[in-house]
Structure formats: structure tokens, C-alpha cells
Amino acid sequence: SPLDQTYWNTRWERGETGWDIGYASPAITEYMSEYPDKNAAILIPGCGNAYEAEWLASNGFTNITLIDIAPKAAAQLKEKFLHTPQVKVLCEDFFQHQAKYDLMIEQTFFCAISPVKRKEYIEKAASLLKPHGKIIGVLFDKNFDQPGPPFGGKAHEYKLLFEPFFVMQKMVPCYNSIPPR
């Protein structure tokens, strides 16, 4: 079945959210704890339960935008962040989004889209970032035996995809991610 709004909303309605670790990714919080600009415009696409946004808001970040295509997820997030004005929740398709950001946080969105859309993802990310904007996050460094999502990949594949649009400053094995990732 296509990985469209209906697919993802059904997963949320059924509680099939196996990607959810229940807290902010340690790799991302460690990076962001050193990020100097608390007013940076931050985008988290395919944000799920947005634990990273909770962490960011509680650590002084003031301009966080969450996007999820699933209406169920977006409704839950709007309720969750009702009294957190620094977090804006949008129920929309990342590929249709129009805005500019300083930073995009990649957690489990890239691995949730079909590999045939990866180049489009990277082009869209580049168009959403301001000059000198960056993507930070975690990508799988393995291929999976079963069909996805999640869809895996290897560092050399990612470099080939990202390098026409981004300067790779650092891509190394993640020492502080959770074991399944």
C-alpha cells in the first residue's frame, strides 16, 4: 500500500507506532544541548510524538515547527503542546510545506518514506533551509531483510544522495543511539 496520509493515520489510530521510543533521542538531545542559537527556526518533519520538541522547549528553544501527515498524530500533538507557544504543529505533507528554517532534525522520517522519494526529500529539505541551514539527525546504517518501513541504507548511499545539495560535515556511527537504531 502507498505510504500516504491514510496509511500513516491508520497506523496511529491502531496504535502501531513501533518507532516510538518514549523519550527524546539521546543522540539528538546531546547535539542540541551544544547548539548555541535558542531562537533558531527548527523543523521536525514526520515528528511522531515529538519528544525532541518537548526536550527543545524545556531547554529554552523558542521556534519549533512540527509536521506530521497523520491527522491523528497532529491532533494529539496539538493537545500536547496546547500551552507551549514555542511549538507549532502542522498536519501536512512535508513535500508540500513552504517555509524557511535554520535547522531540520531528522529522527525517523527519512527511513519512513520510500527510498524512491529520498532524492525528492533531500531536494525539499534543501529548499526549506536558509543559507547555512543544516540537517542533523540519525539514519540507519543497515539494510533490512523485510520490506519497510523502516527502510535502511548505508553511509556511502546517503553521501551520494546528500552531497549534490549539502556539504557533509560529519557522518559517523552513532555511539549514543538506542540499540535498535
Give a description of the structure.
The chain has 6 helices and 5 strands, in the order ααβαβαββαβα. It is an alpha/beta fold and 181 residues long.
Give a nutshell description of this structure:
By secondary structure, the protein is α/β, with parallel strands linked by helices. It contains 6 helices and 5 strands.
Q: Which word captures the global form? A: globular
Q: Give the structural class.
A: alpha/beta
Beta content: 15-25%
List the strand order in the largest sheet: 3-2-1-4-5
Rg, rounded, reads: 15 Å
Helix fraction? 25-40%
Low-pLDDT regions:
none
**Main beta sheet:** 5 strands, parallel
Number of helices: 6
Could you list some keywords that capture this structure?
6 helices; 181 residues; five-stranded parallel beta sheet; alpha/beta; 30% helix
Helix and strand topology:
Elements (H helix, E strand, L loop, with lengths): L4 H9 L12 H8 L8 E4 L5 H8 L5 E5 L2 H10 L6 E5 L9 E6 L11 H11 E9 L17 H8 L19
Parallel strand pairs: 1-2, 1-4, 2-3, 4-5
